[in-house]
Write a structure and sequence with these properties.
Strand content: 5-15%
Number of domains: 1
Structural class: mainly alpha
Order of helices and strands: HEEHHEH
Largest sheet: 3 strands, antiparallel
Distance between the termini: 30 Å
């Protein structure tokens, strides 16, 4: 007969490993987005004049240096403190809540890391320089955006898809 202490110890070891894996699944996208976002914005601010553009793929994809005092599409341009508070709260909530997303799986945890990393990337801009640096222009898209914005949108879409899958999966 198997030793119950060994079995329960093994289960604890497996749970500890899974906890560390989920930690990495959150923190790698989170820190990766913040790092890429801040490095790209620093490069743009250092090497481009405000309004300057550089074609990457003809007219379809360009680097266009803009500063945005509002949210997406420049809305609520005078509400800097609202964005600072909302972003800070969302980052803190994400850090506190990601360990509780175990039932939703690793994709949900990684998606939350993307959203929180994007929120922190834009929060750093709002605190340090009042505006957010935007530089990615895609033809026929109505706004110039940045890596943080892309991470927020991608993470939110993944989370939405995962919630739909989770809600409609067969009950076991």
């Amino acid at each position: 007969m198997a030793d119950p202490i060994l079995i329960s110890g093994t289960n604890l070891a497996v749970k500890a490993y899974e906890g560390r894996a989920y930690t990495l699944v959150f923190w790698i996208p989170f820190l990766g987005v913040v790092l890429l976002d801040q490095l790209s914005k620093w490069y743009i601010r250092s090497n481009f004049a405000l309004g300057q553009s550089l074609p990457v793929i003809g007219e379809w994809l360009q680097v266009v240096y803009k500063e945005n005092a509002g949210a997406a599409f420049g809305i609520l341009a005078g509400a800097r403190w609202l964005f600072i508070i909302a972003s800070a709260v969302s980052v803190v909530l994400a850090i506190c809540l990601y360990p509780k997303l175990d039932p939703f799986g690793r994709f949900m945890v990684a998606a939350l890391g993307l959203v929180a990393g994007g929120a922190l990337g834009n929060l750093i801009d709002r605190i340090n320089q009042v505006t957010v640096t935007d530089f990615i222009y895609v033809k026929h898209f109505p706004a110039v955006f940045n890596i943080a914005d892309s991470a927020i949108v991608a993470g939110s879409c993944i989370m939405g898809i995962m919630l739909i899958i989770y809600c409609y999966r067969p009950v076991q």
